[in-house]
Amino acid sequence: MKRLILVVLVLLSMTSLNSCMRKNSTDLETSIFNEDLQVEDYFRAEANVKYTYEGHGNEYASYSVYTDYISGSRVQLRYNNGGTEYVEVLENNNKEIGIVLRKNECYYREDFTQEMTGLTDVILKEPIETGTAWKSADNKKRYISNVGVKVATPSGTYSTVEVTTEESGGKTLSYYAQNIGLVQTVSRINNNRIFSMLSKIERNVSFAQDCSFFYPDVNGDKIYYRDKKIYFLTNDKTKQKIENEMKNLPVENFCKVLGPNVVINSLFINSKNIVYIDFSEELLTEMNAGAGYESMILQCITNTLGKYYCVDKVCITIAGNPYSSGHIEMKTDEYFTVDMQNCIKLQ
Asked: What's the pLDDT tens digit per position in 248-260?
């Protein structure tokens, strides 16, 4: 079983060109191999696109990919195979395409395109011709094993470049089509055969995430929450989406968590799994609350962000300084803790 899971991870890591490739005609059109191709022909970042792959041989062989962010020569892709969700950042650099960052179990949305990790797992390299070879990040032999290979998938038939990755007990074959990217992977390891085929390309679509938003009631003694879907287009800022929702009310008899002029200056999670959120000074000036009600508002902010990022610690600052009001004084890096007691879910 562990071996099968490892095979699936190999398969998924080879999908890294999928949602960033553009096809200029219908999905059913047959693509023709061009002998003068460069890696950039397989690395054309496209916003608001979703690729869906149909898999066989393992429960995780089917998956979808969405383009989170595009920045210069980098693109951030989000993968979901029904069992986990993770992101990869790819870069087109010096005639090769490589994975420069990978975040496993990443269920929140954050822009990682500017991070530097030192990881570069090259998945395609020039010249695009049979025999071009290199090593993967984990030192496996990887090479272009054939060109002009015809591959039939549910989304169409393509003329592809075949890339082979060898490992103990077998190999994985990945097939890339011009202006599309990855269209198929086939893994044959220890008599197990697992494959994934491109089944559908959807354009002009948004990415939906579930998020729970918390609100204090007008009586000031209970906190309520409602699950909502937030819809993102490529390059949308998560902090802006959350700010907008915190200024809305689900029904009457609740108070807004943020005043109309409050701005979220920054929002991120650090390496210690603590969420940091920095507000403009209007968080305080527009709050107009006593000590008890202020605590409830801060608890609503903490619970909302803690649940979204799947953590229990949230550090709240004002204009870059520790949170400080007439009732509550926080120290540098001191955090609030998620507390779901006495929180009531709205239907």
From this structure: 877 666 788 999 9
Measure the CA–CA gap between 141 and 77, rounded to whole angstroms: 25
**Considering its fold, how many domains does the chain have in total?**
2
- Residues 11, 145: one domain? yes
Q: Which two tokens stand for residue 60?
A: 């995780």
In a shared domain, residues 77 and 100: yes
Residues 63 and 182 in one domain: yes
**Residue at token pair 């990415």:** 207
At residue 284, φ and ψ (nearest 5 deg) are -85, -45
Indicate whether 317 and 267 sit together in one domain. Answer: yes
Range of the domain at 304: 207-345
pTM, two decimals, is 0.86
Residues 60 and 97 in one domain: yes
Residues 26 and 108 in one domain: yes
End residue of a domain, out of 203, 234, 258: 203
Q: What is the pLDDT of residue 220?
A: 67
Single residue among 203, 238, 272 that ends a domain in this structure: 203
Read off the pLDDT of residues 99-122 as tens digits, 9 standing for 90 and up.
Answer: 999 999 999 999 999 998 777 899
- Does one domain contain both 116 and 73? yes
Question: What is the longest distance spanned by two Cα atoms in the chain?
Answer: 72
Q: How far apart are CA 149 and CA 130, in angstroms?
A: 11
The 3-class secondary structure across the chain, one letter per residue, is CHHHHHHHHHHHHCCCCCCCCCCCCCCCCCCCCCCCCCHHHHCCCCCCEEEEEEEECCCCCCEEEEEEEEECCEEEEEEECCCCEEEEEEEEECCEEEEEEEECCCCCCCCCCCCCCCCCEEEEECCCCCCCEEECCCCCEEEEEEEEEEEEECCEEEEEEEEEEEECCEEEEEEEECCCEEEEEEEEECCEEEEEEEEEEEECCCEEEEEEEEEEECCCCCEEEEEEEEEECCCCCHHHHHHHHHCCCCCCCECCCCCCCCCEEEEEECCCCCEEEEECCHHHHCCCCCHHHHHHHHHHHHHHHHHHHCCCEEEEEECCEECECCCCECCCCCCEECCCCCEEECC
Q: Same domain for 170 and 307?
A: no
